[in-house]
Design a protein that fits this description.
heterodimer; A: about 160 residues; about 95% helix; rod-shaped; B: mainly alpha; 2 domains; 7 strands; about 10% strand; globular
Chain lengths: ~160, ~375
């Protein structure tokens, strides 16, 4: 049972040596080791956090880009659409205007033609009247050159009167 | 960034812990071989008579010596402390004796004075050995024995190895801060992290930083003591009850000195218990204060001593049976038990550190009752 009795000397040395170990190690080993471990862990954690942050930023940047691209595309479509409508409108307006002008020109032309026609007709009528007068004069002059013809005319005129 | 982390991981995995084992082994063997040379010098002065004595007994048959072989003696001698370091036959390292008595005052001398050339115990300068105690020849009174015994020498050796290893590690942290660990550092670092994150932090929470140096020292002291104790020729340091008792008492003192109001209230006036039961619970709680260090003392002492006894018993079997077959069988068994002992060395260090942090954690926990 000898080994169940703690020896005084060993107890003394153990307490002294162990306490010295605790103090010396705490100051010169554990302090630098634990603090640099903590430091390193923090720097690794920071690096990881930053990587995660950068990743998120990249993702948000990418989605931003996509959003921008989408907006740009929509904008382009919109511009194209308005441009097309505007073009169509201008085209139609131009057509309408052209037609209107053409109609007017035709109208005007018709009016001018009509006037010209009336004038021409009037002219022709005057000419025909004068020609007729001349022909009639010549005819009368010739027909009434002898008595018989005068008589016949008179008779005809009388017959016409009779009829009336 | 990813690749940087991978390199870091690869660095931590590389440089296996094997690199450090030779360091420890070499250190130990250098000291182990260095001592006997010194011992030999001491012995040289008396060598002539020694050889004479050897010649005298040369006629005695060798078999007679082996018949006297007592396994019990060998084992007990190894397990217990001694005033000299006995490595092998004729390979004895004398150690300093430091004694104090009221009558004679302080005296320091070599333990070799207690033995004559035939290794018989003799008295020296009024002191003599009685069993393992040193007594005054005149009165037969025990003196205060602060000798550097085998275990104290082993204690110094363990402390030196511990200081060497941990200072080396600390220096490499200072030399390359914020870098991946290298060499010895990469062997010790996971152990430190294990103690911090698995043993201390879960039990002590925000008190971790305060008690971590003590528990780390405790863990590494027990681990190194256990492992060095397994080396051939070394002393059974952590299997000595004086060592385990002092460690347990230190834990006990730290636990109770850091105990907060809730802890003491729980012991003396356990909340939520009827008055009558309190009369029974109070002594139980007070006994509980002392069973904790007692359990710590006995657990480590028994685990290590039992391991050494098993190993030595197996080795002794060869000498008892005088048979090669038994020798081979015992060697194989010793190999396996030694491997188990290495495991036990780590487990006991873990358990001691775990219970210490558990007890301190219980004493410092904020008011929370189950």
């Amino acid at each position: 049972m000898d080994f169940l009795l703690p020896a005084n000397g060993l107890l003394f040395w153990q307490v002294v040596i162990f306490l010295a170990l605790v103090l010396v190690l705490a100051k010169f080993a554990w302090k630098p080791i634990l603090s640099s471990l903590k430091e390193r862990e923090e720097s690794i954690q920071n690096a990881l956090d930053q990587a995660e942050k950068a990743k998120q930023e990249m993702a948000s940047l990418k989605s931003d880009n996509e959003k921008l691209l989408k907006e740009a595309r929509e904008e382009r479509d919109k511009i194209l659409r308005t441009a097309r409508t505007a073009a169509n409108q201008i085209h139609e307006e131009a057509q309408v205007a052209a037609k209107k002008t053409a109609d007017k020109m035709i109208e005007d032309a018709k009016a001018v033609i009509n006037t010209e026609k009336q004038a021409a007709l009037r002219d022709v009528r005057a000419q025909v009247a004068s020609f007729s007068l001349e022909i009639a004069e010549k005819l009368i002059k010739k027909n009434l050159a002898n008595d018989k013809s005068q008589k016949e005319l008179t008779e005809t005129l009388i017959n016409d009167l009779k009829l009336n | 960034m990813q690749s940087e982390i991978q390199t870091l991981a690869r660095f931590t995995m590389r440089k296996p812990f094997f690199t450090t084992i030779p360091v420890i082994l070499t250190l130990f063997f250098v000291t182990a071989i260095g001592f006997p040379i010194y011992a030999q010098h001491e012995a040289d002065h008396h060598d002539t008579t020694h050889i004479q004595a050897g010649l005298d007994s040369a006629g005695a048959p060798h078999a007679a010596e082996t018949e006297k072989f007592s396994a019990n003696e060998v084992i007990i001698e190894h397990v217990l402390d001694d005033h000299q370091w006995h490595f092998a036959e004729h390979l004895v390292l004398p150690l300093p004796i430091i004694v104090y008595s009221a009558e004679r005052g302080l005296a320091v001398f070599s333990s070799s004075h207690f033995y004559d050339d035939h290794h018989h115990e003799i008295e020296y300068n009024g002191y003599k050995l009685e069993g393992r105690n040193i007594v005054l020849t005149a009165t037969g009174e025990k003196v205060l024995d602060l000798s550097i015994t085998k275990n104290v020498a082993m204690l110094f050796l363990t402390a030196v190895v511990l200081l060497y290893v941990l200072f080396t590690v600390a220096r490499s942290y200072k030399r390359n801060p914020k870098k991946a660990p290298k060499g010895l550092q990469s062997f010790i670092e996971p152990v430190i992290l294990f103690v911090r994150d698995e043993i201390v932090k879960p039990n002590l929470g925000h008190h971790t930083d305060k008690y971590l140096p003590y528990i780390l020292t405790l863990f590494f002291f027990i681990l190194f003591g256990n492992l060095l104790g397994l080396l051939p020729g070394s002393a059974n340091l952590t299997g000595n009850i004086a060592i385990t008792l002092s460690l347990a008492v230190l834990t006990f003192l730290i636990t109770n000195f850091s105990g907060n109001a809730a802890y003491w209230k729980h012991i003396f006036w356990t909340p939520g218990v009827p008055l009558l039961l309190r009369i029974i619970i109070l002594p139980v709680e007070i006994i509980g204060l002392f069973t904790k260090p007692f359990a710590l003392t006995i657990r480590l002492f028994v685990a290590i001593t039992a391991g050494h006894i098993v190993l030595l018993s197996l080795i002794c079997m060869t000498f008892i049976f005088h048979s090669y077959i038994v020798g081979i069988g015992a060697s194989v068994m010793v190999l396996f038990i030694s491997l188990i002992e290495i495991l036990v060395a780590a487990i006991q260090a873990y358990v001691f550190a775990l219970f210490t942090s558990l007890y301190i954690g219980m004493a410092t926990a904020e008011d929370e009752h189950h």
